[in-house]
Structures are given as C-alpha cells and as structure tokens.
Specification:
mainly alpha; Membrane-bound Lytic Murein Transglycosylase D, Chain A; Lysozyme; 2 domains; single chain; 10 helices; two-stranded antiparallel sheet; 33% helix
C-alpha cells in the first residue's frame, strides 16, 4: 500500500465501488483493504471531509486525514502525543475510522445515522434521538454542520461517481500517478530526522511529506515500538532535465542546483 505526500486527498474509506477515476482517487483508491469496508454502503465510503489538509484542526480539536478527535483516536489505539500523532497516518487513521463507523452502525442499525455520528459523535446523536423522540435522521433538528453533512456526503459521492455528468473530464495524463514506496521499520530512537533522511538518500522534506505523523524533528523511542516509515523508491523525486518552453532549452538538473525533492519521476515521459 502506498501513502502519498499530497495533503489534499479524497475521502474513500475503501474502494469497493465502481467510481470514475479522478486525479486524487486514482492515487488513493487502494490505501485500505476491501475487507475493512465490506458491507459499507457506497456513500459511506466518502466520510472524510473533502478538501481538508493534513494540518487542519477543527474547532472541536479533530485533525488528521479523517478528522478524528484525540479521545476517539486513542480509543482505537492510535498513538497521539507531541512527537507522534497517528491521526496523520493515512492507513492507521482510516482503519480507526472504519472501526468507528462499524461501532456507530452497531449502535443505530442505520448507515445514515452512523454517518451523522461520524460528524456529531455517537453519544451526541443518541442524545438528540432521545430528546426529539425519533429514530429517523431526517426528522432530527440538528446544528447546521451536522444537518448539512449527510447531503454534502451524498453530493460528493454523486460527483465522484459521475464526474463527466457535472463537467469534470479527466484524461489519463490528468491523473496523479502512483508513487512507488517501500516501508522501513524502526524500533529505536531517531535523534535527528534530517540526518536519518539523508542516510536514505532523500531529504527531510520528503520524509515529512510521506510521514506527516512524525510531528517533530526527532523520534524518541524508549519503548522500542516498531514504527513503519514510508520511503519513496529511489529516483522518483529526481529531475533528469527541465524543458523550458520559452527558450526550448533542456537543462540538466546538476547545472541548476535542483534538489532531489522535485515533483516529477526521473523516468517520466510526459512532455507538456
């Protein structure tokens, strides 16, 4: 499974539907196993807040790819502290989100209420159902955010399922390519992440982009916990040349002082 350095991602909890490919879904559709989402209705595969960046923190304190509260994350065994915040780990946070959804469905036996609970909280929806003497989401009088949440969810699902119907036409070259990565497992302290990155022939920026759960510039590890660190395969971020349209010139990267954190793969054949 690849994880990606882009901070804006689509919001699949899994990829069990036959959706059209968009630039981001082409890259993010396989980051969590289908087993985790077996039985989920299609619309509930879009529960992460669209457009959220990895560093966005909601007014209530939810953060990360899946906008999880600290207490919720910890209840699903995510490590959250000043050094490590696994709410920013796409795979681990997605698995926690799936577990939360299943818990909500077990409580309400209704996917619409489960989705609403992802936004308002299981206890919050339970209180409102009891207070308003109903078991139907559409009869509830809720705060503006939760009232809009389900309809935004359905709108996103409809657009991503049928992008051309709404004026979105994506060519193959518009899709973000998958980034080839591998995992390094570390169970010791890393005193300096910049030095660690250089030892792997990348730089600090690339290390942090692929592993935003690393919240500081080091990784203390007295407990000897095994952490999986994602590393892009050799060569992906290296420019071999730049074509300058204005001058129609080919410039070798070594001549212009480019670092190896550029955005095109070395073997890219696309010339725009």
């Amino acid at each position: 499974m690849n994880q990606y350095p882009y901070t804006t991602v689509t919001l699949e909890i899994g990829w069990t539907g036959n959706y059209s490919r968009t630039p981001t879904t082409n890259r993010t559709r396989s980051f969590i196993s289908k087993e985790r989402t077996a039985g989920f209705p299609l619309s509930n595969q879009f529960l992460r807040n669209t457009g959220n960046l990895t560093n966005i923190i909601s007014p209530a304190g939810a953060t990360g790819y899946w906008q999880l509260m600290k207490a919720t994350g910890k209840s699903y065994n995510l490590e959250i502290n000043e050094q490590v915040d696994e709410r920013y780990d796409m795979k681990l946070a997605a698995e926690a989100a799936c577990k939360y959804l299943r818990a909500a469905y077990s409580e309400f036996d209704n996917w619409t209420l489960a989705a609403a609970a992802y936004n308002r909280g299981i206890d919050g929806i339970k209180r409102q159902l009891k207070k308003q003497d109903t078991d139907n989401y559409y009869d509830l009088y809720l705060n503006t955010e939760t009232s809009r949440y389900i309809f935004r969810l359905l709108a996103i699902k409809e657009i991503v399922s049928n992008p051309s119907k709404y004026g979105y036409h994506f060519r193959e070259k518009d899709l973000y390519p998958n980034i080839s990565t591998h995992i390094i497992t570390v169970d010791t302290t890393i005193s300096n992440l910049a030095t660690f990155a250089k030892s792997l022939e990348i730089n600090y920026r690339i290390l942090k982009l692929h592993n935003p759960w690393l919240r500081r510039d080091n990784l203390p590890n007295k407990s000897r916990k095994a952490y999986n660190i994602i590393i892009p395969d050799s060569g992906y971020y290296v420019f071999t040349h730049i074509e300058m349209d204005s001058a129609k010139a080919i410039v070798d990267s070594s001549n212009v002082g480019l670092s190896n954190d550029s955005i095109a793969p070395a073997d890219s054949s696309n010339k725009e």
